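Per reviewer request, we include the raw input and output of the structure prediction for the construct analysed in the revised manuscript.
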Amino acid sequence: MKIIHVILSGGVGSRLWPVSRKSMPKQYIPMFGDKSLFQLTAERSKSLVDSTLVVGNKDNYLLSQADMHRAGVRTFTEIIEAAPRNTAAAIAFAALAAQPDDVLLVTPSDHIITDEVAYAEALQEAIDLAKEGYLVTFGITPTKPETGYGYIEYNGNEVISFREKPDAVTAESFLHSGNFLWNSGMFCFQAGTFLEELRAFEPEILAKSQTCYECRTDSFLPETETAQIPSKSIDYAVMERSEKIKVVQTRFGWSDLGSFESIWEHWEGQGEDHHFQNNNCVVGSKKHVEFLGVDNLVLVETEDAILVLSKNNSQDVKKIYERLEKEKPELVN
């Protein structure tokens, strides 16, 4: 039995446009010292696991390889998707590549985590539960009424319910109740247990993922078979339906850095004052920037685009990305 760190790296980070692009998604941008989120993800777990498996897509696997080497992980395996088919299929590929009793630690590649001791403790608790045959999810203690995350209603290690991203009033009630955790998108389970539950709830996803995996060439999955796999998240496919779910309440600092608001908060928490002026934040600009008569703004500059937004509208950047994808695709590639 091995502990395998499965790094998922298929996302684009559309809420971080124009910094994050299809050709350079947010997880590969060296915005944290001189390191990327992907590199930090690989470094964080390398001493806690036996091996690492990266599930990414054909557009970014070379970026993943470069960051794995920067992280000092010289030996790792890859599964390279022809096109993203969401997390249920991505994790199925990883489980099919493992032995049934191997424990998979599944993490996104674009989260920031602080307090490595607390991280190691949470992993050990999750691994112990996974060995007992449970599907474990990691819950983050909420620090504010966040509307951009899903929530887990819990009691100890027991999951009472999963909740969709709430409106502001509901998020406030979740925070005050003390019975809810943010859903981190991190998981831990034995490969065989996950495949059994996927077979029970989504047999088509499993069957078509298996066919696709068996038709791979080296690390590359084929396009035709990939296109036939239903696209569904692990949450909808398995986690919200299984009776084998447990949650580990984590003590480490966490952010999915999925918006400019969360990047603002991270930089603020780290004391990186050079990004701020008069309660405004500058991302990416090499020019001298002044703000006058405004606050709570984020100014984002790249070589070919400038974005100015209110911090409170950070979640809506995705709408701009989706519009530009149709109107000016060169600006999102």
